[in-house]
Amino acid sequence: QVQLVESGGGLVRPGDSLKLSCAASERAFRNFALGWFRQAPGKGREFVAGISWSGSATAYADAVKGRLTISRDNGKSTMYLQMNNLKPEDTAVYYCAATTSRADWVGVRREDYDRWGQGTQVIVSS
Predict the structure, then answer these.
(1) Alpha-carbon distance 52 to 32, whole Å?
(2) Could you tell me where the beta strands, DSSP code E, fall in the chain?
(3) Counting beta carbons within 10 angstroms of the beta carbon of residue 66, is it exposed (0 to 12), middle (13 to 18) or buried (19 or more)?
């Protein structure tokens, strides 16, 4: 069973940048489509970004397009989320998710994924 571990969260000011990482325990990392989701206090878990197994296909929520960039390094079994120009509304716990897929497919729904990390907190505040 693959384990996903997020890191890189923290407290930043509006306009700052952060880079989140999601490390996987399994060598078959390249067999997984991956995604980032977030959950703000009192709200449901929402899709942020997703990436296909090869990295050739990506998808983003409208709220983050142009500011956040998802990427992966299959050789390092790690996925990343580069977050630029952060806003207070980006404050949330960020989760990485995985599901087995070798198609150029990106999941955008919570139910598309069956493996989850424990989350990393991002707080954007002045």
Answers:
(1) 7
(2) 4-7, 10-12, 18-24, 32-39, 45-51, 58-60, 68-73, 78-83, 92-100, 115-116, 120-124
(3) exposed
How far apart are alpha carbons 115 and 14 in whole angstroms?
31
Amino acid at 101: S
Whole-angstrom distance, CA of residue 21 vs CA of residue 102: 22
Phi, psi (rounded to 5 degrees) for 83: -115, 115
What pLDDT digit, counting tens, does each position of 10-60 carry?
999 999 999 999 999 877 888 999 999 999 999 999 999 999 999 999 999
Task: Enumerate the β-bridge partners of residue 74.
Answer: none
Q: Which residue type is seen at 105?
A: W
- The residue type found at 75 is G
CA dihedral for 89, 80, 22, 115, sign (positive or negative): positive
* Residue 66 CA: distances (Å) to CA of 45, 70, 76, 88, 92: 21, 11, 26, 16, 19
